Amino acid sequence: MKNTYESPLNSRYASKEMQQLFSPDMKFKTWRKLWIALAEAEKELGLNISDEQIGELKKFQDEINYETAAKREAEVRHDVMAHVFAYGEQCPKAKPIIHLGATSCYVGDNTDIIIMTEALKLIKQKLVNIIKLLADFAMEYKDLPTLGFTHFQPAQLTTVGKRACLWLQELLLDLEDVDYQLSKAKLLGSKGTTGTQASFLELFDGDHEKVKKLDKMIAENMGYSDVFPVSGQTYSRKLDSQMLNVLSGIAQSAYKFSNDIRLLQHLKEIEEPFEKNQIGSSAMAYKRNPMRTERISSLARYVIVDALNPAITASTQWFERTLDDSANKRISIPEAFLAVDAILGIYINVVDGLVVYPKVIEQHINRELPFMATENIMMSAVKKGGDRQELHEKIRIHSMDAAKQVKVEGKHNDLIERIADDETFNLNLNELKAILNPKDFVGRSPEQVEEFVNEYIQPILKENEALLGVKVELKV
Questions:
Q1: How far apart are CA 290 and CA 260, in angstroms?
Q2: Residue 239's closest CA among 115, 107, 104, 327?
Q3: Residue 398 falls within a domain, yes or no?
Q4: What CATH number is given to the structural domain containing 395?
């Protein structure tokens, strides 16, 4: 066991893929890619940089001498300059042109954008897989009636599949936000100390066109089509806030799903997966606690609150640059992505193994449906010659007596038997039971599921077919 603190996001929750994206190794290797991209663009635009120098930089692109960098950073208290120094020791011929004309934010900010963008792509992949699993679940149970709840009180019937579409709808909104955020991805580029590009203008002897081209060439070299047209020393911290708002939205959707499953598990209607040797409680061996969905709720709450960090940071930046963003950003941004990655991994695991108990659902319907069907019963009795006003009063009395049976005496709902025994209604028990077919009370739920999945979900799944097939494994 380690004797120093380790984030649970690493040790318990987030995937290796997401951890790798936010690793120091990913960051520093991306710094070196950016230094190579800068040198190549500067050479192509006419600066005195040789192929030999660029070849030397590429040779050591992935072989970072971390000990040298750490030792240098302890001396100069500057991480970027420490890595420039370390890179220069490996590349003596290229040393004079490493980081030429750039400021620290050239590597720091561009790298942050690249990592966040790649992380958002990983989030999208898991989001699409959850949508696929939920769509399959919705279609499988599109016809299964279940009690709807408003205020967590029994309400008009819906179907299990239709309820799943409520979860799907929210994920669809999240996917739209993810796609929009990815569609406008752009780098900081090479903007200099206050965003004026003055140092590059001097390097290129006042040639504004070359300075503009340098910006775009670096972006294209790194796989991006555009850069922020204007900036201070940093890209606008508004981007961080937008990114975490997208993650917060996903967390909100997952939270709602996890709460619903936890409530349904309490009702014993639907349960999250529970493995053969899993322990639900250390004290109560019989328990099947919904620990996976509880974990989703717990992590989602963290992300929702964490989204305040970049919002406050973005609103408190001074002029062209202030450094009070850095320490907060190093923590809040990676942890939000790691937490949402963990949330979606659990979400996939839960949906892939949901257990539905139709008999329990049916019991709950039978307990409440007679009350909900009273209008239909009354109309059938009117058709047989009954007086609506008299029938209404009779149903009111029978309903209150039946409710007392259920609530006070703990017996089953005998409203239907009471009505069958009342000659005023002129309806026998079989006729009443025919009126109480649950499928007649779900409205267009099955059709809504089919229409939603076929018209909205399937086109998205087809478009993102290459992202399907993600496998997750929970650590605990």
A1: 11
A2: 115
A3: yes
A4: 1.10.40.30
Identified catalytic residue from 11, 50, 225, 281: 281
Quick one: pLDDT at residue 283?
52
Residues 86, 96: Cα–Cα separation, whole Å: 13
Neighbour-count burial of 98, counting CB atoms closer than 10 A to its CB (0-12 exposed, 13-18 middle, 19+ buried): buried
Print the domain residue range for 388.
374-435
Residue 281 bears catalytic tag: yes
236 has catalytic annotation? no
Total domains in the chain come to: 1
Other C-beta atoms closer than 10 Å to the C-beta of 351 total: 22
User: Within 10 A of 119 (CB to CB), how many other CB atoms are there?
Assistant: 23
Lowest mean per-residue pLDDT among 186-190, 207-211, 405-409: 405-409
Q: What is the pLDDT of residue 416?
A: 87
Residue 423 lies inside a defined structural domain of this protein: yes
Q: Report residue 219: phi and psi, to 5°.
A: -60, -45
Band (pLDDT 50/70/90 cuts) for residue 163 is: very high
Q: How many angstroms separate the CA atoms of 473 and 151, rounded? A: 35
In tens, the pLDDT along 303-348 reads: 999 999 999 999 999 999 999 999 999 999 999 999 999 999 999 9
Domain annotation covers residue 390: yes
294 within a domain of the structure (yes/no): no
